[in-house]
Write a structure and sequence with these properties.
The structure is a homodimer. Chain A contains 7 helices and 16 strands. By secondary structure, chain A is α/β, with parallel strands linked by helices. The first copy, chain A, has a 9-stranded mixed β-sheet with strand order 3-2-4-5-1-10-11-15-16, sandwiched between helices. In chain A, strand 2, helix 2 and strand 3 form a beta-alpha-beta unit. Strand 14 of chain A pairs antiparallel with strand 14 of chain B, so a sheet runs across the interface.
Amino acid sequence: VASKPKIGQRGVLVIIGGHEDKSGAMPVLREVVERSPGGPIIVATLASQVADELWPVYRNAFRKLGVRDVHHLDIERRSDAADRTKLRHIERARAVFLTGGDQLRLTSKLGGTSLAEAIRRVHERGGVIAGTSAGASVMSETMLVAGAAGDSVHVRADVRMAPGLGFVRDLVIDQHFAQRGRIGRLLAVVAQNPRLLGVGIDENTAIVLHADRRFQVIGKNAVYVVDGRNITHSNVYEDPSDAALSVHGLRLHLLAQGDEFDLNMGLPRRLP
Amino acid sequence: VASKPKIGQRGVLVIIGGHEDKSGAMPVLREVVERSPGGPIIVATLASQVADELWPVYRNAFRKLGVRDVHHLDIERRSDAADRTKLRHIERARAVFLTGGDQLRLTSKLGGTSLAEAIRRVHERGGVIAGTSAGASVMSETMLVAGAAGDSVHVRADVRMAPGLGFVRDLVIDQHFAQRGRIGRLLAVVAQNPRLLGVGIDENTAIVLHADRRFQVIGKNAVYVVDGRNITHSNVYEDPSDAALSVHGLRLHLLAQGDEFDLNMGLPRRLP
């Protein structure tokens, strides 16, 4: 699967819906490894409150997959993001893996720092940025932070968004998608601005997004793509904020392993 | 809201997503009352295992809404469905309300009996058939009985269907929709046969379906309409049954109070 990136060619983003297998067949983590052969892989636990528990789990998983060169990145506070040693580690990385936790913990510590810029450059020079759960949500320009799940969605009250790290534009990610009943809040975001394509990723499932803006689905479950470009009506700004959301004319694609989606065309296809 | 049906004109179906308000403003039950002024309303608890608890709750709700003429219909076993007194009760009813419970308990006792035929005739001669939860699912020709909810959907294993009472054709109902995370299983049904329009109804929400095959949405939450007519690809019959479901090119409408859907055209519109 791994093809050596040309010099100067941007690498891939591996955007994971959370709860990826870390001890069995590990289809998702294996993809990260195959796209950064031998490492180094940096496991960044900045989003997590239990970094010391998460780090050994990922170290062991990546070692089991044959990578010896795995390192831990964490910072206590924003000022630590200028640390020279940490920056040097990132500069030689072939992959950075952003764990789950809290999106805002990650972006408030990392956003706008030299460390964030160094991570972005890993991608720019052909490396992998992978992220799971909160680490998946932060990939986009605007990210979902909170919102009603497993319940009906109303016009304005239910969705909280914030600026993400901006590794990919024109889409918004949601994770743990089917498992936490999040279709409603993703529809609400797309209705607020149909410029954004909504991408809801199930657990133990990921998209592998390439420089040419195509992505493939990998893993056990599904990816929901919500396309609002042809919306004919919505009540986002007309109705009181406790009214139920109404959106006519959405396009929905349910994608699984073997499917590819072209973000330029806005169309899915089954790989031959 | 209530308009007197012309003689020979078919009445309405009020199809409710479960958990409708039975003590407060009661927007959904009020609709049933306004469309069958003064009654008699028959509360049919055939689907339920706790009929004796359900019946007084509905009797009190309908009385609160000003209907004195409310009756209870239940049968222990299929042979009771020929009972003359019960049939006479149905013959003079203006509305029959099917409570929640288990779809198969209802259809296995009622399907193909004179009692079922008498209920169908209430609708034929301009009356109301209302149903909530299991009582909503049974309205269609083919009904959803069980299926994975709040989780990813796979190609074949996750959905069980059975023949319904057939009061409305060309659609399939799901209920408690957002609350139980049921979008995946409804997509699976529509992918199996895109002739059927998928209609997922949230709790405390209903559709009011008229003889001209238009329905309006009433109540607090939303109705999801899944239109598979333009599906360009699905893996329903190709892939192993534990593969994640893939369906490209669905159309999705999220409807709320104030929206109407025309089943003939397959299109929603906002009421002026």
